[in-house]
Amino acid sequence: MSEASVVRAAAETGSRRLILDHAARLLRNGGYHQTTLREIAEAVGIRKASLYYHFASKEEIVEEVVNDGVRFVHQAVVVALTETQGAAPRERLEAAIRAHLAALHGHGDYTSASIKVFTFGAVTPPESVRAVRRAYEDVWRALIAELQQAGALPAERAPDALRLFLLGALNGSTDWYRPGRFEIDALAREFAALLSPAHA
Questions:
Q1: Burial of 61 per CB tally in 10 Å (0-12, 13-18, 19+)
Q2: How much is the pTM?
Q3: Is 11 contained in some domain?
Q4: Parent domain of 85
């Protein structure tokens, strides 16, 4: 690839990310139906028609924002579990919760938009969105199975109910979490303690 091609590709990638950054902020604040292509273009400082150079439709923009929001959290939790491989089960649970919360609030526009517009209004979410969400939920399915086998979570509790309860509680923090009011480390300890006995 020529130097000019590299520079052009970098510029296009930067423009695409800028569009997604503004779209994530607008989607977080206004939701799916209230956010328009015109608003996104105005926020970026380009003409609406210019958006079509990077994205085919509003749905494509929303799809990428939602998927990025999930991926940011997914990657953080996988790293946390990799770093705590072989640690006590309770420690791994707390690490996963901490990573989820840190990523959730560290990439606030994307992750909040992902939660808010996941249903795409009344439209069935695209298959890529469902696949990305399932891939992340699989991380928690595996962790919950590991913790139940180790006795860190009650074996008689339905794994799917535990997963939905925990992820719902963590994602719900977008409504009330404020830096300075709560510390993520303390929240992670509290959430872990609610689910797992201290001796686990």
A1: buried
A2: 0.86
A3: no
A4: 59-195
